[in-house]
């Protein structure tokens, strides 16, 4: 099991953050360096595979998200895919790892025993392509 991860919004200067994951005040020396944590009112630690959190992160991507390449993900398609994963996925199965594709799609990946499974979803048409590799047969 992966350790839990937590996400803070990118902030610069001395700002107050009030999101669903963190509420408090931060002082930063630069866009990347935290100089002080002035107060913490609330922190929610989420699972690294939390679908809702990952969908929220992916929804922030804009065109050019990968070194000038990569299309933004279709917001309604992304919400639909996230809802389907959250409501229809068997709780006994591990949640998938979700990644954006350069074309603006969504890739879900699972590693189960000796199988590597992926589902590539076109977020505009909602058509998906499934692939599975049985590593035990190699």
Characterise this structure:
With 138 residues, the chain is an alpha+beta fold. The chain has 2 domains: 48 residues, no CATH class; 87 residues, no CATH class. It is built from 2 helices and 7 strands; from the N terminus they run E-E-E-H-H-E-E-E-E.
Keywords summarizing the entry:
globular; alpha+beta; 138 residues; four-stranded antiparallel β-sheet; disordered N terminus; three-stranded antiparallel β-sheet; 2 domains
Walk me through the topology:
Elements: E1 14-18, E2 22-28, E3 34-43, H1 51-59, H2 75-88, E4 97-100, E5 106-112, E6 115-121, E7 128-134
Antiparallel strand pairs: 1-2, 2-3, 4-5, 5-6, 6-7
Helix pairs in contact: 1-2
Using only CA atoms, what is the Rg? 18 Å
Could you say how many structural domains there are in total?
A: 2
Mean pLDDT metric:
78
How does the overall form come out from the CA principal axes? globular
What is the helix content? 10-25%
Strand content: 25-35%
Structural class: alpha+beta
| Sequence of secondary-structure elements | EEEHHEEEE
In short:
With 138 residues, the protein is an alpha+beta fold.
């Amino acid at each position: 099991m992966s350790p839990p991860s937590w996400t803070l919004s990118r902030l610069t200067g001395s700002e107050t953050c009030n999101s669903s994951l963190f509420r408090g005040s931060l002082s930063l020396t630069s866009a990347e360096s935290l100089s002080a944590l002035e107060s913490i009112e609330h922190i929610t630690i989420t699972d690294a595979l939390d679908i809702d959190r990952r969908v929220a992160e992916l929804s922030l991507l804009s065109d050019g998200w990968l070194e000038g390449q990569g299309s933004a993900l279709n917001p309604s398609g992304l919400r639909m895919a996230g809802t389907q994963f959250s409501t229809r996925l068997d709780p006994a199965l591990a949640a998938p790892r979700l990644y954006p594709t350069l074309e603006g799609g969504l890739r879900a990946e699972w590693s189960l025993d000796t199988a590597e499974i992926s589902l590539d979803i076109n977020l505009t048409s909602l058509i998906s392509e499934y692939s599975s590799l049985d590593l035990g047969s190699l």
